[in-house]
């Protein structure tokens, strides 16, 4: 079917029914949902009021008081079932992600796989919420560290990973003993409603098999900024995990801090790669192409800056320009297309604005123009842009959430490393090289200042097993694997005296 004749309404109804969502939930609401594939309005969903939001958060807190008493491995059983339900719904949910966000089929499915992976991780974790036993200076004492559930976890997610980001947070939060309250992007409520329904299925099975769980373990808030603000300011939400722009984080971080809450901030990235003189250029070409053009440049880990050594510039860059010129752009549901649409007109306009700024700063722009504008006048497809820049100036310093790759020639490794680090953001980075000195220096203390630093793979597409997040204006939060779970729990240090005397620490005497 061509873009001009595509229509999704009927398919949306049947997809949502497959998750157990009634057709009524898709009609008559105040929030219009559109597919970026063809610009069609595919649903009108209801929004929650501010009063209901406050009540829902209070109810989630009540759920916390019970859920924290359920042993962690049993909480893990719920997440195991969630993983099973996600496996069963993978094709349908992946398809819905593609329709609502515009991801190509394999990336829509990949997003659901990421949810399944974090569920598996969290199940194992539910038996590994380890504390330490610490040597004490006092006789007949024991000192230890215990990790306790923290409280309601507020999750704010962005349009580009509309469900995976929820799962990174929710799977960990729930095994750690915390109910979740989720405010998804206004651009992607359908995938959120579907995910909530899939969670309810898992919960039903968990209860049917004798599992204990309170009501309101997982709450979904569909609404605008005012709803997010209530969540951010609520004293019964000790942790806010927010993914989005640096501008959003600048508001959320201080507001949460003002009430001494904790936040995990996952904000903008302006990710770079260095291509050294010894790089395997075939591998580099593929790595750069996926990282820079994949997901139409709308990942927080998208490759946005490329520093190419002068000795390989004239070999690699023309090949890249050719790949940019020939990459297939179109309906992301059609096999063969690698680039889907931008999320909306605003994204396209910001892309054009950045390209204009790059031209004014001396950049040579390849691509970047709108395509399929006639077949789909309210959808925004753009040819990815490769911009040869004389230096790192102007829009290169900013994150523009679109497929623009700025390419800069360098001559000296330390200069390239300095350029990598010389932006406000610090999420992800990589180096393509076969020189062990360069590779090791890049991941060393004096190397990349980002939360993620890779060698011979691009900066995007992280696995869930590692901690995910970045430094500086990226916000400093860590989600997903490694010991990121610790942010979802409160640490308690316990000293237990099993003797009959009371020695005081540091030799203090206090005899009464
Ligand atoms: C995001 O864009 O918000 O590393 C997250 C990646 C994905 C997650 C991206 N696993 O590209």
From TrEMBL:
<comment type="subunit">
    <text>Homotetramer.</text>
</comment>
<feature type="domain" description="Aldehyde dehydrogenase">
    <location>
        <begin position="29"/>
        <end position="493"/>
    </location>
</feature>
<keyword id="KW-0520">NAD</keyword>
<dbReference type="InterPro" id="IPR016163">
    <property type="entry name" value="Ald_DH_C"/>
</dbReference>
<dbReference type="InterPro" id="IPR044638">
    <property type="entry name" value="ALDH7A1-like"/>
</dbReference>
<comment type="similarity">
    <text>Belongs to the aldehyde dehydrogenase family.</text>
</comment>
<feature type="active site">
    <location>
        <position position="266"/>
    </location>
</feature>
<keyword id="KW-0560">Oxidoreductase</keyword>
<dbReference type="Pfam" id="PF00171">
    <property type="entry name" value="Aldedh"/>
</dbReference>
<dbReference type="InterPro" id="IPR015590">
    <property type="entry name" value="Aldehyde_DH_dom"/>
</dbReference>
<dbReference type="InterPro" id="IPR016161">
    <property type="entry name" value="Ald_DH/histidinol_DH"/>
</dbReference>
<dbReference type="InterPro" id="IPR029510">
    <property type="entry name" value="Ald_DH_CS_GLU"/>
</dbReference>
<protein>
    <recommendedName>
        <fullName>aldehyde dehydrogenase (NAD(+))</fullName>
        <ecNumber>1.2.1.3</ecNumber>
    </recommendedName>
</protein>
<dbReference type="InterPro" id="IPR016162">
    <property type="entry name" value="Ald_DH_N"/>
</dbReference>
């Amino acid at each position: 079917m061509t873009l001009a004749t595509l229509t999704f309404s009927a398919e949306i109804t049947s997809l949502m029914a497959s998750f157990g969502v009634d057709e009524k939930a898709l009609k008559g609401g105040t929030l219009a949902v559109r597919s970026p594939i063809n610009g069609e309005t595919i649903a009108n969903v209801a929004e929650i009021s501010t009063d209901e939001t406050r009540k829902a958060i209070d109810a989630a807190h009540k759920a916390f008081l019970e859920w924290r008493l359920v042993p962690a491995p049993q909480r893990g059983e719920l997440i195991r079932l969630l993983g099973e339900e996600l496996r069963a719904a993978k094709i349908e949910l992946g398809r819905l992600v593609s329709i609502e966000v515009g991801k190509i089929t394999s990336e829509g499915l990949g997003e659901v796989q990421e949810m399944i992976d974090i569920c598996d991780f969290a199940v194992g974790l539910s038996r590994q919420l380890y504390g330490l036993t610490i040597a004490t200076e006092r006789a007949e004492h024991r000192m230890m560290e215990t990790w306790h559930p923290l409280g309601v976890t507020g999750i704010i997610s962005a349009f580009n990973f509309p469900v995976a980001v929820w799962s990174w947070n929710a799977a960990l939060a729930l095994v750690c003993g915390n109910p979740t309250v989720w405010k998804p992007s206004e651009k992607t409520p359908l995938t959120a409603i579907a995910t909530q329904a899939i969670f309810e299925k898992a919960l039903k099975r968990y209860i049917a098999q004798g599992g204990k769980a309170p009501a309101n373990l997982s709450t979904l808030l569909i609404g605008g900024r005012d709803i997010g603000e209530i969540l951010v300011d609520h004293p019964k939400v000790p942790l806010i995990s927010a993914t989005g722009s640096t501008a959003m984080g600048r508001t959320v971080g201080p507001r949460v801090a003002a009430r001494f809450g904790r936040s995990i901030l996952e904000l903008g990235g302006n990710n770079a790669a260095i291509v050294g003189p010894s790089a395997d250029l075939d591998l580099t070409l593929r790595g750069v192409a996926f990282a820079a053009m994949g997901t139409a440049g709308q990942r927080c880990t998208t490759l946005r800056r490329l520093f190419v050594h002068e000795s390989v510039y004239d070999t690699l860059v023309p090949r890249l320009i050719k790949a940019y010129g020939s990459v297939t752009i179109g309906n992301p549901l059609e096999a063969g297309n690698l680039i889907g649409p931008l999320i909306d007109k605003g994204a396209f306009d910001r892309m054009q604005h950045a390209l204009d700024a790059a031209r004014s700063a001396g950049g040579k722009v390849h691509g970047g123009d709108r395509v399929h504008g006639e077949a789909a006048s309210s959808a925004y497809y753009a040819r990815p842009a490769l911009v040869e820049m004389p230096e790192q100036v102007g829009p290169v310093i900013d994150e523009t959430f679109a497929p623009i790759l700025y390419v800069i020639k360098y001559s000296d490794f330390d200069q390239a490393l300095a350029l990598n680090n010389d932006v406000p953001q610090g999420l992800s980075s990589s180096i393509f090289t076969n020189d062990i000195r360069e590779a090791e220096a890049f991941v060393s203390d004096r190397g990349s200042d980002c939360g993620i630093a890779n060698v011979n793979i691009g900066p995007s597409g992280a696995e869930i097993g590692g901690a995910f997040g970045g430094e500086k204006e990226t916000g400093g939060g860590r989600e997903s694997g490694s010991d990121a779970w610790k942010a979802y729990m409160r640490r308690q240090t316990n000293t237990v005296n099993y003797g009959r005397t009371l020695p005081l620490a540091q030799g203090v005497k206090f005899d009464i």
